[in-house]
Amino acid sequence: MKLRTKIQLLASVVVVVFVSLTNVSVYLFYENQSFQSEAERVLNQTDAMSQAVSTVPYDELILVNVIQSYIPSEGMIRLINQDEESFHTFTTDESFSSISTSFTNSQTAQTLTTDDQERYVIASKPLIWEDGEIVTLQVVERLYGLEENMALLRYILIVASIIAILPAVVGGFLLAAVIVKPVQRLSETMVHVEAEGNFQKLNEQNVTKDELGQLTVAFNKMMERLHRQFKQQEQFVSDASHELRTPLTVIDGYAKLLLRRDIDRSSPLFKESLLAISDETKQMQHLTEQLLILAKDDEQLHVEKTTFFVEQLLEEVTDRFQVATNRSIKQISQRSSQTVYADREKVKQVLYILVDNALKYSEGEVEFVVDRKKDTVYVRVRDYGVGIDEQEVAYIFDRFYQIDAGRNRQATGVGLGLSIAKKLIEAQQATIFVESKQGTSTTFTIGLQAGEDCESDE
């Protein structure tokens, strides 16, 4: 069943049920009130009759005349003794006599529906008879007028229900069209995307601000993201193939050179070939390891968070690079003994990447700056080199993206370091971003979760 049909059917059923329940409730309420009103009317008539009977001297002829003056056009009046026997009956139709007699010494009024669906009101009132005996004065009246009114009410409610349901069905059809149209457009677009392999977006003109409009906007954002990721994947495969092709070509060339010539192992050419093969193999191995890291999902990185002092980790990184490069790395901490809750080895790997870049693209001092805001510890790696152009900052974490080599002609690499750094940081639900002023400085900032034993800033 189509969604439009379901909405139409559901809307129609809801309206039919609501209208039906409403009309049935109105009918039953009116019927109950009408019965009570008729019963009260007949009871008042019975009370008036009893008073009239009690005010006249006892004489059977006079009594008969008084009682007959109160007989309903469709009813019966009778007197019932304590043995529940009727000793005086006055009726316009002998069929009323079939109604069972009932003695009562209290004033009552009730309604009766026969098997033929005829409705009666029976009102009873006790009287003291001439010999002191208590008898029951009973008045029975057939409710012809009420039946006619109830039949008319049923007809009116049925017509009103039809009049109310028809617009509701039409409204359900229009509502289904309004709701289903954008969903149908979305479905058709998705089928087209699957069939054609493109990333078509929905038209956002005249988009409403309701959930359907939000669905359109969300779909377009998803298409845009998928298209961007698809392009990045194509670029990634292309760049990876290109980067792997170069060392493989060098290795193949030197290997063929060694095979073609009978070269003495002690000759410079032999050593040069082996060194070239070794260097290119290491380069390719390093590139492959980086690609494998980028290819892993966050769950496959096996993040193992622990609480550790960030200053101690920075000292290890500082000692490692100062010995290897003989460059100055300064550590600045706003507060002492800062701890973080993160994967220590992965944070260390990220710091290696950031410090290595800082040393490549600057000649002066590199700084570590540590501070904290609320539950986040920020570690900043700052260099005072040539900086990054504002237009390039947005792409700095993209795979294989390399800034103009003019910044540092000695800088080497394939542009995967910062992509790996971002992946390792985001796998820990942490943050990394860059701020740079061209010709002045560049600062990479890592935001890590503070350790439990740290005091929060107020």
From TrEMBL:
It is a multi-pass membrane protein. It comes from the Bacteria. CDD domains: HAMP, HATPase, HisKA. The chain crosses the membrane at residues 7-30, 152-180. One of its GO terms (molecular function) is kinase activity. SMART domains: HAMP (SM00304), HATPase_c (SM00387), HisKA (SM00388). Its EC number is 2.7.13.3. It is found in: Cell membrane. Residues 177-231 form the HAMP domain. It catalyses: ATP + protein L-histidine = ADP + protein N-phospho-L-histidine. Residues 239-452 form the Histidine kinase domain. The keyword Acetylation does not apply. SUPFAM superfamilies: ATPase domain of HSP90 chaperone/DNA topoisomerase II/histidine kinase, HAMP domain-like, Homodimeric domain of signal transducing histidine kinase. Keywords: ATP-binding, Cell membrane, Kinase, Membrane, Nucleotide-binding, Phosphoprotein, Transferase, Transmembrane, Transmembrane helix, Two-component regulatory system. This is Signal transduction histidine-protein kinase ArlS. It comes from Geomicrobium sediminis.
